[in-house]
Amino acid sequence: MKTAAWGRRPLADCVPELVAAARGDKKATLVIQNVRLVNVVSGEILPGMSIAVKDARIAYVGKDVSHAIGEETQIIDADGKYAAPGLLDGHCHIESTQMTATEFARAVLPLGTTGGFFDAHEISNVLGLDGLRFMLEEARSTPLAAYMQVASCVPSTHPGLETTGAFIGPEEVAEALSWGEDMIGLGEVMNFPGVVYGDDKMIGEIQATLRAGKYADGHFTWKSDDWRLPVYAASGVNGDHECVTAEDVIERVRLGMYAKMRQGSAWHDVAATIKAHTEGGLDTRRMILVTDDRSSESLMNEGHMNFVVRHAIAQGVKPVTAFQMATINTAERFGVSRDIGAIIPGAYADVILLDGNLADVNVVMTIAAGKVVAEHGRMTTEWERYDLPALAFNTVKLGRKLSTDDFAITAPIAVGKAEVRAIEVVENHVETIERQVWVDVVNSTVNLDPASGLCKMAVFERHGKGGGHALGILTGIGFNKPAAIAMTVSHDSHNLTVIGNDDELMARAGNIVADMQGGVVMLTEDGVSEFPLTVGGIMSKEPFETVARQSEGISQALIQAGCPLNNAFMTLSLLALVVIPEIRLSDKGLVRISADGIDIVPLFTGK
């Protein structure tokens, strides 16, 4: 699965040496002594334990491993620290951190994350299988136990609702799943209406996944008591991260699905969803903690899965249980618990040492594939960097310069007031609310009152496929001065999205982003903040520290312009994602997501 440099070979290939090392006939390459073992299989904490490692895998776990120690064995005296399995992220899009796989690994390994299940549907919407392929190859070059999923929804629904840079169907899914065991399954199936009502493309993709012996992940945003959830589950989709209430978790688990509870940068769902266990008494074996996703600045300032586990414990979850939901449960969900997710003989030696109280999740050492890779919050090893292919660059094909005319909203009346459907942003949540608001019309054009708090939103197709665009109205942004933000990070089609209350600034911001071949630009009359993302228009080729600093620069510029939203950039980047209720804007128009399905609706209500 991995490059030889990290030694992540199939267990079958390792058995002779592994068994010999367990007997003591061959000596361990690494021994960790005197740990309090967090046994996520039995749910116990075992004091006075030791771990013997042979190359990338664990050979022996017990009170005494002296028989496995040789002259060249590296010995670590843990001095009573906790030893837990490396943390696993059960649902993450690496691209949403705006980092490459290499820099993502550098960011999360010191935080105790040693693996994850990554749905690369962001780069897949830009570059198709070519993008997925280089993400997989780069992830393989890192110490992470990185498992990739092939994007199920490129586009997220169908071309009539949005324009993407590529297309993936059943044949492409089958091809990608043949690339190796680390191509673990099908990424989140966001076109849930398509599954429920028998869309050939979606059903075909799920069939290709199941025939390959792989796993299909879900994305179901209708209510938890909707009669169609069991229909969705009948397709073989058996994991879902779109849980925002305890009831969402309960209903999914009762149907045999794995319920994923997320604590991302901009969506905070664990406190509500974990009540399915802490108050409802639900068995946690099919409950998983995930990020989906955390920005680079959140990784630097708060953490990754260590932060999520700590947060779950703060909600009343027992520490060992919280670790299970970020290790063994996750591994079992994807059928790889023989390799990762527990400190047991035969598994990969992905181990973290924790100091202080277990509930603090204070990671002081990370061991990945049997090698110490990080200590006290810093990487201690480097590896040969992956060379990104030329196709990853120059992907913004706008084809023209934007002008103020592109942001003029033509009204159905010449003068007076008109009612429009506005998108209301909800802080710390992925969903939006459809509002009806009145706007002024002058010379048949919408004229937003600065005191109204309303902003315009525009989405421009940027993949060189026609150059169409659509306009909408936002509320809840909070700008208190002329301002505009433009970005090619705009899930999931990643077209150019521009939001603002000043047409001239919006045009300028959009042109700057196009000229620098992707990224984010925040523009006011006071100045400009730039965050270049030249890899597919969604990732930076810079080091993690630089990415975090530039991301934070955008956040601060938004705050200074009056935007009060927590992690506003990540929230705004979802406003074109047409599979999350209630209403979004794509390059095709205003899209409503309801219990009846997903449809384009007019901006003006006609009242």
UniProtKB/TrEMBL annotation:
**Family to which this protein belongs:** Belongs to the metallo-dependent hydrolases superfamily. Adenine deaminase family.
Q: Which gene encodes it?
A: ade
- Protein name (record): Adenine deaminase
The Amidohydrolase-related domain extends over 83-373
Enzymatic reactions: adenine + H2O + H(+) = hypoxanthine + NH4(+)
Say which domain of life the source belongs to.
Bacteria
InterPro entries tied to this protein: Adenine_deam, Adenine_deam_C, Amidohydro-rel, Metal-dep_hydrolase_composite, Metal_Hydrolase
Its top-level enzyme class, in one word, is hydrolase
- Which residues belong to any copy of the Adenine deaminase C-terminal domain? 431-594
Tell me its cofactors: Mn(2+)
EC number of this enzyme: 3.5.4.2
Keywords tagged on the record: Hydrolase, Manganese
